[in-house]
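## Example record

The block below lists the input lines for one assembly entry, exactly as stored, with component labels intact.
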Amino acid sequence: MFVKIGRDQSRFKQIVRGKVRENLRKYVTHGEMIGRKGRDLVSIPLPQLDVPHFRYGKNGSGGVGQGDGEEGKPIGQGDQEGGSGQAGADPGAHVIEVEVTLDELAAILGDELALPRIEPKGKSNLDQTRPRYTSVRRSGPESLRHFKRTYIQALRRQISSNLYLPHEPRIVPIRDDKRYRSWTDILEPQANAVVIYLMDVSGSMTDDQKEIVRTAAFWLDTWLKSQYEGVETRYIIHDAAAKEVDEETFYHTRESGGTRISSAYKVCANLLANQFPSSEWNIYCFQFSDGDNWGEDNEKSLQLLRETLLPQCNLFCYGQVESPYGSGEFLRSLSAAFGEAADNLVLSEIENKEAIYDMLKQFLGKGK
Amino acid sequence: MATVHFEALPNELASLQAQIESYAERQGLDFFPTIFELVEADELNAIAAYGGFPTRYPHWRFGMEYEQLSKGYHYGLQKIYELVINNNPCYAYLMKSNSLVDQKLVMCHVYGHCDFFKNNAYFSQTSRKMMDEMANHGNRIRRHMDRQGVEEVETFIDACLSIEDLIDIHSTFIKRYDPVDKYNFDQTDESDPPPVPKFQSKGYMDSFINPPEILAAEANRLRDQRAEQSKRFPVEPTRDVMLFLLEHAPLKPWQLDVLSILRDEAYYFAPQAQTKIMNEGWASYWHSSMMTRMGLIDEEVIHYCDHHSGTLASSPDRLNPYKLGIELFRDIEERWNSGRFGKEYDECEDFDERQNWNRDTGLGRQKIFEVRRIHNDLTFIDEFLTLDFCRQYKLFSFGYNPSSNAYEIESREFPKIKQQLLFNLTNVGRPLIAVREGNYKNRGELFLEHQFNGVELKISWARDTLVNLYRLWTRPVHIETVLEGTSTILSYDGSEHKLEKSGDRKS
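Predicted structure tokens for the full assembly:
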């Protein structure tokens, strides 16, 4: 039997992809809507792909159920958005989750923001050899023994020497039968990148601002991972002093101290010097702060940035999150100090979640 | 082109079918000839996505449906067991990968459905050649797509789908108004005074029982009413919005064709929505009865029980129509077998006596066959859901509590539960909407009314629906409804939405 569902399915997918494209802005700013699934799948819930109808609103979404329980016992959660009430009695209103791989998502992001592909620096001198297991040899370590080939060889030998009994098929490989996997070395251009996030966790950064940083970091990661083979991510937090932390700590620490941006720059510089020499790594730094810094620290920070960090980084991005407490001084100092001079320094002001979109465009638009 | 070729059923299943069919006949089931098709899981998902019709017109929502079904299937979350089409002959699909006991069960279940399709009154007006008609619909829409472009036709279909539930599900039985004949010019003269109804009376009492001044006032009222009505268009509010658009919207011939196809299909599918509980209940009643009496062999019992209880499982937030249906049919059979009906039983207030009531009437079978013939879900629940049944099956009503953002059990009182269930079933759980004015403000604008019954519309969707409606009507569209207790008119004029509160409070 012949059923033409394929056409409708691809039509639907087209529309969905189209939707993703059209509404990307919305999804970018609703980072929490994007559930990360497994290693490289994200699910994007797509509400209201249904054709709209006249329907009852939430106060009509009750129904009749069956089971135990007192009056007032909750039996199901209402949904978060409020708009699209999913009613127990109304099977029509469902939310679809469309799964998109991170690569697809990055491609969509690239298209939407018209991002240039990144040209890794120093391509020619960052070569690296890699083993590829493509052939078989007669000698090698036991750990690389090719089990199947070995037994096939043994079977062949036994048959040809008439040792093989079909009613009692017992195959015993001897030394000569053994076969081992073997490799050839392939020269590959290495394109590794390290992404370092620096964040101000002093008292003036609120949870809202951290949410912005988190969403921004998700999209930056997604894009950079689509551009490089191996991406390392490091996190540095600072108030008056700085330290390297893991991701969890990075997003959940809250200190109350003052702010010394230079301390973070120092940690970052050490990290680069010890682990990620710029001759071997493409380096990306993203700094998020509310722009408050101790007055006398500015000079020191600018100096560190100019002399140590900027020469090593592909890109150094400073995103200033608008805060009810911060003065926003630092952005002005940076732009006064560097202006247009440093082309691998990008500054951006992030007023709210909506502005993440523009920030991504600014940060990644340089193609570095 | 899109002809459907099926392979013949393998021998094992064919003989099983013959066996089950003859048993079903002996049980009194009366069905159309039934054709079983054996298909792969993916095919079954595809056919199910098309609502059972492999040759249906192309549209993305079938693709979406398929995407969900096949994902659900491949992730092992769900599986379609049975799919049966109301048609003569009835088509039913069996999944190739199912075990034999499942195929048996599905066959028994299918005969229940076929019997229901053939005999239930609400299906009596549906086309029994829908397989062919759907194929024709598919061809017509494909042809329009070839001529007008896929995008154009698809967008139009999307707009029509927005109002696909705005039909009058009872209109196939009730004649709402006489068709107006455009070419009949000698209709009643407008100037003829309408006859005034009078109370019957003896001559000498006439001037007292029918006082002349009252008669004169009544004559005036009738004249005004007629004048009012003749100005109105449509004369009475009409619930078949799709028909109204077909007759009066400024659509191109291909658009009219598409709209009429969607309307036909909406009417074809309506009875299935109207009888979900009964239909599934009836089919489950029969698969259970047939499997346990003739179909099962010892080794299959566990598998059958597992499957059967899976079908009938209910969760607190969703009433399973299979479960409710089968238990109600069993309850009815039981009650009519023991004579627990009628005045004497209803008026009996002695608990013990009611519990042990048995008059050996033995009318159960006869009664359930009658019920499956004349009822739909709404009347079925209204007539047969009893207090005892509610208690026994622990039914409750639930509602949304905005303060906790959760659905909560609201009540275990019988009248409330019944009312809630009846509300969910009224007009298939959709708001009642009718065209009140086709020439609103004398500017050719469309005015709909939401016949408010205490539950508000979902405004975001209502707005989007108006946008689609505007595409069909091409002039501003309005709907009157009630929001937060105030009568409100939502409007869309092609560029912006308006929300106008009229100010009168309605409760």
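Residues 58 and 361 of chain A are 39 Å apart (CA to CA). The first helix of chain A runs from residue 5 to 22.
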